Amino acid sequence: MHLPLRPPVFEHHTVLTYWPSTPRIRRKRTTEVMFPLRATLLAVLVSVALCYYDDYDYRPANMLGPSGPNCDQECDCPINFPTAMYCDSRRLKVIPMVPSGIKYLYLQNNKIEEIQAGVFDNVTEGLRWLVLDNNQITNAKIAKGSIDKLTGLEKLFFSYNNLTEPIIPPSKALNELKMMHNKLSKFPAGLLADKENLTSIHLQHNQLSTESIGGAFKGSKKLLSLDVSHNKLKKLPAGVPSSLEILYADYNDIDVVGAGYLNKLSSLQYLRISHNKLVDSGLPAGVFNVTSLVELDLSFNKLQSIPEINEQLQQLYLQANDINKFELTSFCKLITPVNYSRLNHLRLDGNQITHRSMPPEYSTCLRQAADIIFD
Q: What is the rounded CA–CA span in Å between residue 314 and residue 231?
């Protein structure tokens, strides 16, 4: 088997376009409409779940040959992959000394409680990937002179630990940061000021508030993907760069979207604000009428009307709101042979309208809609 000299660096963020959950009490009829799609999605979602920790192209050490002589006895440094050190799933409580030449360090699924000073002294400039997912690390047990010396780090995976504040290495090469499922309550401004190569940040399942992340993302001029879902935000994060293409803010307490917020994000394509507290009065007129959006998820909120969208939007999820009317002007201001909505998928189940609520001319406006789902 031919093996790469090193894991491939991911240059693009993969987007899984999905059908958000249907309310349980209304699922029977919707299942009949969506069954073929769900079968495919189930396979995809299972694959995603099984590979949750494998998005850094993790390969078990036993696939890569015997361990080299300079490796710590509790880890493996395969001869066929000499720049990687595998210390994952070994019940470790401390990090072994890392030998020189290691670029990819796998420490996930252990019982590590602390990061001692000096463990990375041999790789301060050379270490590229550091995987610390699923351990028991706290901020107080991270020694000064450990992570803060890693000047060449590109990817830091620090999810499923007990961090209360983010740990940011000094490396200007950092391009991916994951700190999901921690106890982060603040993200001070300025920590990412010089991280111009950072493209992806995952902070979901923490305790972040709107105030605690104010200005946190300034300086990340190449940021493409930001996930702050499952936190305590009341507004969408401020100060995000115009390069952003993906913003997930599901499961927060957001009740308003500022006028002009999306106008500052000219590259944004995927926006999810499901499972929040949005109401009609919290959405200024035309706030979602921007040409860049491809997918907009506003499901499981408290909207009573369909907000105005741009004709270029392709997927709109509005299920489980309180919508009681269908206004075609939300989709089309003008209907001509060249002016019509490009919407492909529209979900309206779990609201107070039915297919009979749609005006006769809807088929001209929504001529590309393959799925319009009611109860």
A: 27
The span from the CA of 198 to the CA of 221, in Å, is 8
What is the rounded average pLDDT of the residues 345-374? Answer: 93
Q: What is the pLDDT of residues 172-186, one digit of tens each?
A: 999 999 999 999 999
Burial category of 61 from C-beta neighbours within 10 Å (exposed 0-12, middle 13-18, buried 19 and up): buried
Q: How many CB atoms lie within 10 A of CB 356?
A: 7
d(CA 315, CA 309): 11
- Residues with Cβ < 8 Å from 117, sequence gap 6 or more? 143, 144, 145, 146
Mean per-residue pLDDT, 117-140: 97
**For residue 61, is pLDDT > 80?**
no
Residues whose CB is less than 8 angstroms from the CB of residue 3 and which lie 6 or more positions away in sequence, other chains included: 59, 64, 80, 81
**Residue 107, both tokens:** 């420490």
Q: Tell me the C-alpha to C-alpha distance, in Å, between residue 59 and each of 55, 174, 210.
A: 11, 22, 38
From the list 105, 144, 107, 139, the residue with the least C-alpha distance to 122 is 105
Question: How do residues 153-212 score in pLDDT, each as one tens digit?
Answer: 999 999 999 999 999 999 999 999 999 999 999 999 999 999 999 999 999 999 999 999
pTM of the model: 0.85
| Structural contact between residues 147 and 122, judged by C-beta atoms closer than 8 angstroms | no
pLDDT for 237: 95
Residue with tokens 């001209």, as numbered in its chain? 364
> Over 70: is that where the pLDDT of 129 sits?
yes
The token pair at 101 is 């030449």
